[in-house]
Amino acid sequence: MDIPKISEILSQKIAEIQSRVPVKLNISTGVSQTDSVNFADALKEASSTLSSAAPLIDPQLLTGISKPSSGTKYPLVSGSYESVYPRLSKQQIEELMPRIDAAIEKYSERFNLDPLLVRAVIKEESGFQPFALSTSGAMGLMQLMPGTAEGLGVKDAYNIEENIRGGTQYLAAQLKTFNNLELALAAYNAGPNAVRKYNGIPPYDQTQRYVKKVLDSYELYQSLMK
């Protein structure tokens, strides 16, 4: 049986790590004459590179006092957003809730939506994490795809007010198009073309679970208001 060279194994491991980070790793795969390549050191360097690749989020963005300067971008990356973007604590989210609630109320009224429905969508989409980023590139509280955000005029999908404005506008458009809450939620999740293609909720497990979870949360919020 052929035993792979250490350099070949290391190259494979580095390639696997490189596929998950947004920057180029600078790790040599050459083996010295003493075969002193150390996997632990190489992986440690890769891990530190991953950490340093995370964009710094200005704490003032959470307060709404300042806005990112023009040209500020949070690059889309592949993988779970927790590895690159700050996941806010429960306390931090609670501190932001007055701002989130105000935006929900404002834009729900503007687009004629029940704010409890919008809140249920946010709960399922991001768990109220403003910097949420999915593996497919959906961004922020209401998980706007880049093309959708651009079409809605959302310049910063990680801005609470902009994101909720775009998300409520898009959800309202789906309700107007399909005139049915379940179909509108399915369109929000899988896209309106998928709903048209299957003439109903698409047979995607993720979409079907999504619609049920949003409706369950919506019913719960309604019951709490009684």
Number of H/I helices: 9
Name of the level-1 CATH class of the largest domain: Mainly Alpha
Number of separate strands: 0
What structural class should be given to the helix and strand makeup?
mainly alpha
Tell me which CATH architecture of the largest domain applies here: Orthogonal Bundle
Q: Averaged pLDDT, please?
A: 76
The arrangement of helices and strands along the chain is HHHHHHHHH
**Main sheet, how many strands, which sense, barrel?**
none
Which stretches are poorly predicted, pLDDT < 50 over at least 5 residues? Answer: 17-40, 42-83
Tally the structural domains. Answer: 2
Describe this structure in words.
The protein is an all-alpha fold. The chain folds into 2 domains: 6-30 and 37-52; 85-225, Lysozyme (Orthogonal Bundle), CATH 1.10.530. 54% of the residues lie in helices and 0% in strands. It has 9 helices and no strands. The protein has helices spanning 6-18, 39-52, 90-110, 115-126, 146-151, 160-178, 181-190, 192-198, 205-225. Helix 1 packs parallel to helix 2 and helix 7 crosses helix 9 (205-225). It is globular and about 40 Å long. 27% of the residues are buried.
